[in-house]
Amino acid sequence: AQTVTQSQPEMSVQEAETVTLSCTYDTSENNYYLFWYKQPPSRQMILVIRQEAYKQQNATENRFSVNFQKAAKSFSLKISDSQLGDTAMYFCAFRGDNYGQNFVFGPGTRLSVLP
Amino acid sequence: EAQVTQNPRYLITVTGKKLTVTCSQNMNHEYMSWYRQDPGLGLRQIYYSMNVEVTDKGDVPEGYKVSRKEKRNFPLILESPSPNQTSLYFCASSLSGGLYEQYFGPGTRLTVT
After folding, report:
1. Quick one: closest CA in A to B91, which residue?
2. DSSP for B63-79?
3. Which one of A8, A37, B28, B92 has the fewest beta carbons within 10 angstroms of its own beta carbon?
């Protein structure tokens, strides 16, 4: 079974600074999909960024980028120019490419952006 | 507006009293799923459905039932709720296929006393 680990339960960063959230996973599949979701205090789940394992190029969405290291099974999220609105729980998620396509989420990292 | 709706948003009930949490999506998505969120554990998948009449267990299915009789609806049934099912529940939907985004409902806060 796949597992997703986020080793940083809580992090903080100063506004305008850069922060990196770590995520590692375990799988025997060769192709799969990785996601970062954000959950602000409103509890709404919001997709931040996604990556297909077959693609070597790291995904980027505005201030958000990932460092995908397939051999190391690592999928870290970098937030540049942090803003107060980035304060949230961040979840790393894995989705297999098998028939079931079940999702596995990590335990989350609580990020606080400080003014 | 494309959305996933869940009802009720908050529910307090007693042990053993059957309950249903409804989930509906208006995006014609094939894939639907239920999760529970607990502190320190993230979201754990309860059940998912690839299409009408096709459902399968996730990681934590014990104590839950689902059905998918229509494409838009995917209710979660707790036949005999217990206190360890106190949690925040999310329904989600997406197109089938790995990279498609899951759209989440607003969540249902369930307390079982």
Report:
1. A45
2. T-EE--SSTTB--EEES
3. B28
Contact A105 B107 (CB under 8 A): no
Please, which residues bridge with residue A33 across strands? A52, A95
Buried b (16+ CB within 10 A) or exposed e, A70-82: eeebbbbbbbeeb
Asked whether the beta carbons of residue A33 and residue B31 sit closer than 8 angstroms, the reply is no
Q: Helix, strand or coil for residue A24?
A: strand
Calpha distance B27→A107 (Å, rounded): 29
Is A108:B42 a contact under the CB 8 Å cutoff?
A: yes
What one-letter code names the amino acid at A16? A
Q: Which residue has the tokens 């498609």?
A: B100
Find tokens 């529910």 and name the residue: B11
- Give the torsion through C-alpha atoms of A80, A86, A90, A93, to 10 deg: -60
Structure tokens at A45: 């789940």
Give the pLDDT band (50/70/90) at residue A99: low
CA A65-A35-A112 angle, to 5 degrees, is 65
Distance, CA of B102 to chain centre: 13
- Interface A–B counts its CB contacts (< 8 A) at 64
pLDDT tens per residue across span A44-90: 999 999 999 988 899 999 999 999 999 999 999 999 999 999 999 99
